[in-house]
Write a structure and sequence with these properties.
- With 172 residues, this protein is α/β, with parallel strands linked by helices.
- It has one domain (4-162): Leucine Aminopeptidase, subunit E, domain 1 (3-Layer(aba) Sandwich).
- Helix content is 38%, strand content 18%.
- The protein contains 5 helices and 6 strands.
- A hairpin with a 7-residue loop joins β3 and β4 (73-77).
- α3 (89-106) packs parallel to α4 (126-143) and α4 (126-143) crosses α5 (157-168).
C-alpha cells in the first residue's frame, strides 16, 4: 500500500492537511455536526463558494478552497441517511469515499482527513460505516500512489473504537 492510515480522535477543523472531508448535507450550505463546525471555522467565504456549486447528491462529492481552515481544500460529500440498510446505504457510503479520492487525485492532494461519514445524525451504524471506510481507503491507497496519508478523525471514543476494530480486522 502506498500511503498510511492514521486514526485520531479530535477536531478535523484544526488539521493542517491538503484536504479535509466535510460530511455535508445535500445543500452544501452548512448544518450541524462536523458540517457546521467546518463552516464556522472556514468563515463566510466557504458558504459563498458552496452557494456556487448547486448542491451535491448523496454519494457524490464537490471540492472547495479551505478558506480560513489550515487545510488547503475541503471535499464535501453527502453520506446516506441510515434507513435500515436496504435502500442502498452501504453502496452510497462507499461511493462517498470513491468520489472523494477521485477529487483528491485530480487536485494533487497527498494528505486527506475524513470524519466518520454518516455516523452522526444520519444514523449509519458505526461498525458498518468503519468497515466500508477502511475497505475503500485501502483500495484507494493501493491504486493512488500520490496519497501519502489518510487520517480518520473520530469525534468520540466510541467511534474511534469502531474504526480500530475495522482496522484490526484487515491486518493493518
Amino acid at each position: 500500500m502506498a500511503g498510511k492510515i492514521t486514526l485520531v480522535e479530535g477536531d478535523i477543523t484544526k488539521l493542517a492537511v491538503d484536504a479535509i472531508v466535510n460530511a455535508a448535507n445535500p445543500s452544501l450550505l452548512g448544518g450541524g455536526g462536523v458540517d457546521g463546525a467546518i463552516h464556522r471555522a472556514a468563515g463566510p467565504g466557504l458558504l459563498a463558494e458552496c452557494k456556487t456549486l448547486g448542491g451535491c447528491p448523496t454519494g457524490e462529492a464537490r471540492i472547495t478552497a479551505g478558506h480560513r481552515l489550515p487545510a488547503r481544500c475541503v471535499i464535501h460529500t453527502v453520506g446516506p441517511v441510515w434507513r435500515g440498510g436496504g435502500r442502498g446505504e452501504p453502496g452510497l457510503l462507499a461511493s462517498c469515499y470513491r468520489r472523494c479520492f477521485r477529487l483528491a487525485r485530480e487536485h494533487g492532494i497527498r494528505t486527506v482527513a475524513f470524519p466518520a461519514i454518516s455516523t452522526g445524525v444520519y444514523g449509519f451504524p458505526k461498525d458498518q460505516a468503519a468497515a466500508i471506510a477502511i475497505r475503500e481507503i485501502q483500495r484507494a491507497l493501493a491504486e493512488n500512489v500520490g496519497i501519502i496519508e489518510v487520517l480518520l478523525v473520530c469525534f468520540n471514543p466510541e467511534t474511534k473504537k469502531a474504526y480500530e476494530a475495522a482496522l484490526a480486522g484487515t491486518g493493518e
